[in-house]
Specification:
By secondary structure, the protein is an all-alpha fold. It has helices at 7-25, 30-38. It has one domain (9-38). The model has no long low-confidence stretch (mean pLDDT 63).
């Protein structure tokens, strides 16, 4: 990732990426990803 991206936007992008991977790898537990999204500030 580019270093010029603001930390907040960068963190959000990483979080979104992580949640997407989590949803793909844990299709049997979609609630886990849902809770993470709800808890996003």
């Amino acid at each position: 990732m580019q270093e010029v991206i603001p930390k907040n936007a960068n963190a959000q992008a990483l979080f979104t990426q992580h949640t997407f991977k989590l949803t793909n790898s844990i299709n049997l537990e979609p609630m886990t990803a849902t809770v993470l999204v709800i808890n996003t500030p």
